[in-house]
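User: For my dataset I need records formatted as: sequence, then structure tokens, nothing else. Please produce one.
Assistant:
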Amino acid sequence: MLRGVRTQPTSAVPAARQTEAPCSAAHDASVGVAAAVAGPRARADDPVLVVEDDDKFAQLLERAFGRAGMATVHARTGDDALRCVLRGTSIRAAVLDVMIPHPDGIEVCRHLRRLDPTLPVVAISARSGSEHRSRARAAGADAFLGKPFPLRELVELIEALISQTTHEPPEDP
């Protein structure tokens, strides 16, 4: 279990874990700085960080990941997301709403990229024009989905990105 993070099984899918907003400013603003993002340290049970200020949509995302057997950790703002990662919560991927409160998802993506260039990051936004897509890609997002999108598409995209980053190079004979 993640330190300071309460997880509970989803009644519909017992194998999946979901969390209760552990990355809010009110939740455990402790422990030193540690770059605990995915990279080679990520484990299969590390959660996907969902950064979304719309609680109902965040719950939909968490349920979709839960049905796929993936745990989530939720942050409502950019500050909460960065606090979560910097205090040592290990994550295996991130889904960032571009239009979250300070800092926005683009800036959060830049910070995550500095901490771990291999972390799978998907940006999502109701504003899906080419300017927003370009800004997300320039910040380091691996992909961009415009809302609305099929939830299964996001889950499959995250699964594919995770599998690309977790392949270990073959050992030399």
